[in-house]
């Protein structure tokens, strides 16, 4: 089938049209240790998908297999319709990679570095625009080996998006950035998302996942344990609410899946109909995430 002929509905090729990444039964071992264990994952075209998980859970390993820079031991992987283990230069041009920071540097300036790598792309983002997008205009003439950690991270992000990739891999992109730089990075990713770029990112910052991601997936011990939009993750865990109030001046707290019934009882029992200090809270993304990874399996191994 050629790229232009429409795939019949319901076929694998038709489904691939709206799927950027499809992973089935992915396995990766180091020696006799299995670090990715039968992992399934699907990232739709145009979405920002965030992978969360504790240190050592297997996020980077998974992402590197999808980038085509690490071998797998089992499973099926399709990225932009091809197996990254066999894909060539043309496929690579359609992806952008911002790996975990290496801390390396060189004697070229920021601008020289961007101009050097621009030659590898068919339609690179103009250097001035790129510098602006990542907030490095003021550092354009600084040598890379003299950049701060956060500035270096911005340069790596610039190199990842320079070729206007269809699919961008971001491995802990904002580690080392100050809060202002993180915010402007979020704006950059939002701009990419608005232009239809698919983004797969790993992060330890739950506010980043909540802000940017269409869906988040939680990996513990090499397995994907849940996938959902950030405000729906852990639906079961979220059903439970914590009700707090003051009784005779003393704080009281009850955790219940049916807060409405408790509120009715509290109001009925109050002579004035008022319940002092009353609050009802449901678990947020962070609470849910911490519960998910709190199992022995979820700990760093
Ligand atoms: N080249 C390697 N050789 C042996 N073990 C490795 C290698 N690379 C990673 N590992 C191990 O594989 C496991 C998964 O590592 P990985 O880097 O994928 O985790 P991660 O979820 O990205 O963690 P972090 O959040 O700390 O970046 C870890 O236990 C790690 O020590």
Structure, described:
The protein is α/β, with parallel strands linked by helices and 301 residues long. The chain has two domains: 16-105 and 146-228, Rossmann fold (3-Layer(aba) Sandwich); 235-298, no CATH class. It has eleven helices and twelve strands. The chain has helices at 12-17, 59-67, 89-93, 110-118, 127-133, 149-161, 179-194, 206-212, 235-238, 259-269, 285-292, and strands at 19-30, 33-44, 48-52, 74-79, 95-98, 167-171, 198-202, 215-220, 223-228, 241-247, 250-256, 279-281. A six-stranded mixed β-sheet has the order 5-6-7-3-8-9, sandwiched between helices. Strands 2-1-4 form a three-stranded antiparallel β-sheet. Strand 6 (167-171), helix 7 (179-194) and strand 7 (198-202) form a beta-alpha-beta unit. The longest helix is centred in the middle third of the chain and has 16 residues, at 179-194. It is globular and about 75 Å long. The two termini are 45 Å apart. The chain binds adenosine-5'-triphosphate. One of its GO terms (molecular function) is ATP binding.
